Amino acid sequence: MGIIIKSLQEISLMRQAGRIVAAVLQTLIKEIRPGMKTQELDAICAQELAEWGAKPSFKGYHGFPGCLCVSVNEQVVHGIPGERVLHQGDIVSLDLGAIFQGFQGDAAVTVGIGRISPQAERLIQVTAEALMAGIAKAKPGAHLGDISAAIQLYVESRGLSVVREYTGHGIGREMHEEPQIPNFGLAGQGPALQTGMALAIEPMVNLGGWRTRVDADQWTVVTADGSLSAHFEHTIAITDTEPEILTNPPRGELEHGA
Fold first, then answer.
1. What tens digit of pLDDT does each residue of 88-122 get?
2. What is the model's pTM?
């Protein structure tokens, strides 16, 4: 089992790591545009993290070359930033992890480039709402399967499919900690949730079937049928009442270098 937050200092650092991730993602969303190469987003990300006094979680992780995962259209997760040029109508998933004073934050968002198709808009909306449906179940006394089942039910009731080969995870001092959090499963199953748990919940949802494959670069995961995919993620902490989203965009309470 991953970290159980036990002190005010730990929750403060987890909050700051999460807010930095959220702030950098907001900057990337503002900067993304048609004609931009995905490596330009990575460069912005690296600069922003440095200004916040944080380090990238992903760069060098098992050899991953970027600070940011940039996954376009049929790419599900783990897209390597590079020479690919973004075009109007693309959808782009931005997945970012950051380390602040030894604690991790992790979040993802999918955005459209200019005008996108109604199907792509619906995919993005359903995936974002599925994330919130899963987060709502993250309460003490519930089970891990309650999160998984809520995500699956929400997605499949809307005619879309949930990726099954990749999961959410515990998070704290390490980016990936136990438990794994599938985006499908049975309510009431799995370990009981406890106050203080920190979890990264991240539905990946496809317009077509749920199966995926790994591209020739050995990193980029794509849909097996070539359909569009979206990805949303938040780092949360389980509290005695409602779950606290640690990667919500900040409201001016932090400054660069904090």
1. 999 999 999 999 999 999 999 999 999 999 999 99
2. 0.95
Q: In this predicted model, what pLDDT tens digit does every residue of 49-82 receive, in sequence order?
A: 999 999 999 999 999 999 999 999 999 999 999 9
Domain ranges of the chain: 8-245
For residue 202, give the nearest of 229, 223, 174 by alpha carbon. Answer: 229
Query: CB under 8 Å to 113, separation ≥6 — which residues?
Result: 32, 33, 34, 86, 87, 88, 89, 90, 91, 92
String of DSSP letters for 88-153: TT-EEEEEEEEEETTEEEEEEEEEESSS--HHHHHHHHHHHHHHHHHHTT--TT-BHHHHHHHHHH
- What span, in angstroms and rounded, lies between the C-alpha atoms of 186 and 148? 7
**Check: CATH 3.90.230.10 for 8-245?**
yes
- Three-class SS state of 25: helix
Q: In whole angstroms, give the CA distance from residue 44 to residue 67.
A: 10
